[in-house]
Amino acid sequence: MEYTIPLWYTFLVIAFLLSLVIAYPSVALFVTWPIQRKLRQTKQDYLSDWIIWPFQSGFYAMGVLVPFTRWRHERNRDMVDAYELIRQAATPLQWWLSMWLAVSMIGMVVFLFFALALEFMGVWSLGNG
After folding, report:
1. What span, in angstroms and rounded, lies between the C-alpha atoms of 69 and 13?
2. Global pTM?
3. Which end of the chain has the lower number of beta carbons within 10 A, N or C?
4. In which domain of life is the source organism classified (predicted)?
């Protein structure tokens, strides 16, 4: 006997998707661009040269949230220094907006993989039958 995905789970995934759709442009406008502008004035914007535009907001959000200085080694020194500059330039509001984007992205991935795992185990059915 196969069960379909419950309605509450569908609404939860849609809520995370809607949150992600709103958070991504918000982080681009209020986190990525102001930090880029601030770092370009001092000629310290190295991350924009390495990462193409659609993925910059995610990388800047992770740069604000994660203290990468713990993983500083000889090989990755330039990358860690670029992330540390982003972290130092961020305001508390930018930290919260970055956290919103990270929770939305991680939530979407976790819930979608959870549904796929339950379908693989035969608990839920994602298809018509």
Report:
1. 34
2. 0.79
3. N
4. Bacteria
